[in-house]
Design brief:
Largest sheet: none
Radius of gyration: 21 Å
Strand content: under 5%
Shape: elongated
Distance between the termini: 47 Å
Order of helices and strands: HHH
């Protein structure tokens, strides 16, 4: 069985977990982390849309396309 080395960020997060005393605090921390990753994801998606010239009109066109495999 192999072991995994934790990076400094992971170690820091784990050390902060020592201060979590209740389920509510755990949920609050989880909400903060999810918000952080949602923000990063939204930013990456916006960047992708801009780099590939994806407009709302193009998204609407895609939503109405039917590219099913004929059987």
């Amino acid at each position: 069985m192999s072991t995994t080395q934790l990076n400094p960020t992971q170690i820091n997060v784990l050390s902060l977990m020592a201060y979590i005393d209740t389920e509510q605090e755990m949920q609050e921390l989880q909400d903060v982390l999810l918000q952080f990753y949602r923000k990063k994801t939204d930013s990456l998606l916006l960047q992708f849309q801009q780099e590939n010239n994806i407009t709302q009109q193009k998204l609407d066109e895609w939503s109405n396309q039917h590219e099913r495999t004929p059987y």
